[in-house]
Design the sequence.
């Protein structure tokens, strides 16, 4: 039997739970906790009412359920969505209301998080922070205004679930944008192990047992159980990843069964590339096709030519290519891991590219630091009202990844919350004091990188470096910021940024 909470019921349950969580928290912070705006506050509905709305309702049904996949001849039991997938995105126009009737047919609680959207806080899908977990057999109606056009995606915000098949793109169109291209392909990159070598929960348990520091090894990546030792990359400033994956996928298919994209010679193709991986940065490119990068994390940038581009987990890049004559390899190299995902671009005759085809290495791949925000999305110049320093701490030995030395406990997500006030310009300083890179993600906002850099919601922070970004506090609520390495996040590298009550 399905239990359904309508919006009003869930809001009251949610309010009670948050109060209880605040009281149960450390007594010295209980007062502070209660002075933050909650997801059901009038400030949240007031912010929603101010969003541009078309009046169109896009209604979809989505079910999370156990499935069996054929991955290039390997059978994998996993969890996925009925109603959306890498090749079947959710899609709407900016200003439309997206209504998703979501059912949980998984054996575990779950939620839907809409990655990158500055949406209303009570629809952000973070259990015990913005809503109750959706129990097995339960359902939940997500309903919110699509706030910005661009390439987004969604996944659960519970445990390691996103490293199963639980993800799909959410594409938001701007009907007024004159897209100068003939075709559009959504390209979802993923590292895969679920149901092949282990479940993500088993991997996390293994990682939590701890291991030796695997930096400084120079014999290349070495598998030990489900962990990967010695996977390093100069591009990532050291350790590339912790986890051994037997497969790398483009749109759900591995390199031995590649998807073929068909086009006509000379057509301009917009690629919307999404890294949905759990522990892998990808270097993406198309052989013999320079990329013109036009967007990152949904927001336009000044067009930038590149041979390839690096995406951390959670990042998106849009790029235009002009299709050549023949058959070409669409490659996503698992950075530092010596494997790659593959698809084929075909416009004419010619043999399919070999599985071990490599991207040219004549130029450094593009990263966010090479890009500049398009003028219309640059933040207006103003002084910073508040600076929050988030020191990224922890390591492989104890698997104690944290922010400011504090590991998030999702039973008490407000315990160490950092306060901000509505209307402030906030600087976030991600100071990486670990020996590994982290793709840091902020919910509910899109910050700007320094020096006129791009607007983004997920950024690679290299070891030993500090990345300072700025955003305008214009979306009241309680928002996570965390490492999008799902194992680091789950180990505790998360914190909450919360709007104070006026
Ligand atoms: Cu991390």
Sequence:
């Amino acid at each position: 039997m399905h239990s359904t909470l309508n919006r009003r019921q869930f809001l009251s349950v949610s309010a009670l739970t948050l109060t209880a969580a605040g009281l149960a928290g450390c007594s010295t912070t209980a007062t502070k906790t209660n002075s933050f705006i909650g997801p059901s506050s009038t400030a949240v509905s007031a912010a929603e009412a101010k969003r541009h709305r078309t009046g169109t309702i896009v209604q979809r049904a989505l079910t999370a359920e156990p499935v069996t996949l054929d991955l290039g001849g390997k059978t994998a039991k996993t969890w996925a969505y009925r109603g959306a997938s890498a090749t079947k995105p959710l899609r709407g126009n900016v200003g439309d209301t997206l209504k998703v009737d979501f059912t949980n047919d998984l054996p575990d609680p779950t939620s839907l998080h809409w990655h990158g959207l500055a949406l209303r806080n009570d629809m952000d899908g973070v259990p015990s922070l913005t809503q109750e977990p959706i129990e097995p057999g339960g359902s939940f109606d997500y309903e919110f205004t699509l706030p910005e056009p661009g390439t987004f995606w969604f996944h659960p915000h519970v445990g390691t679930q996103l490293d199963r098949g639980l993800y799909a793109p959410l594409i938001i169109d701007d009907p007024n944008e004159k897209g100068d291209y003939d075709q559009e392909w959504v390209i979802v990159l993923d590292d895969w192990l679920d149901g092949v070598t282990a479940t993500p929960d088993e991997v996390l348990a293994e990682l939590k047992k701890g291991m030796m520091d695997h930096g400084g090894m120079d014999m290349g990546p070495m598998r030990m159980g489900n962990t990967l030792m010695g996977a390093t990359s100069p591009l990532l400033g050291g350790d590339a990843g912790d986890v051994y994956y037997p497969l790398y996928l483009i749109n759900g298919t591995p390199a031995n069964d590649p998807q073929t994209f068909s086009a006509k010679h000379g057509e301009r193709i917009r690629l919307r590339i999404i890294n949905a991986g759990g522990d892998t940065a990808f270097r993406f490119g198309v052989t013999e096709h320079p990329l013109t990068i036009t967007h990152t994390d949904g927001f336009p940038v000044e067009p930038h030519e590149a041979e390839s581009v690096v995406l951390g987990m959670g990042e998106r890049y849009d790029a235009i290519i002009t299709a050549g004559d023949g058959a070409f390899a669409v490659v996503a190299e698992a950075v530092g891991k010596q494997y790659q995902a593959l698809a084929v671009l075909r416009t004419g005759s010619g043999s399919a590219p070999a599985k071990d085809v490599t991207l040219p290495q004549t130029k450094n791949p593009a990263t966010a630091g090479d890009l500049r925000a398009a003028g219309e999305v640059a933040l207006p110049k103003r002084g910073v009202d508040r600076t929050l320093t988030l020191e990224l701490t922890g390591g492989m030995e104890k698997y104690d990844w944290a922010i400011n030395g504090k590991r998030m406990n999702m039973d008490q997500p407000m315990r160490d919350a950092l306060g901000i006030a509505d209307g402030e310009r906030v600087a976030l300083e991600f100071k990486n004091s670990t020996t590994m890179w982290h793709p840091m993600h902020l919910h509910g906002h899109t910050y700007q990188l320094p020096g006129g850099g791009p607007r983004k919601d997920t950024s690679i922070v290299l070891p030993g470096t500090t990345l300072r970004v700025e955003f305008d506090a214009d979306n009241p609520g309680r928002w996570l910021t965390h490492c999008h390495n799902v194992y680091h996040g789950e180990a505790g590298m998360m914190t909450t940024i919360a709007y104070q009550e006026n």
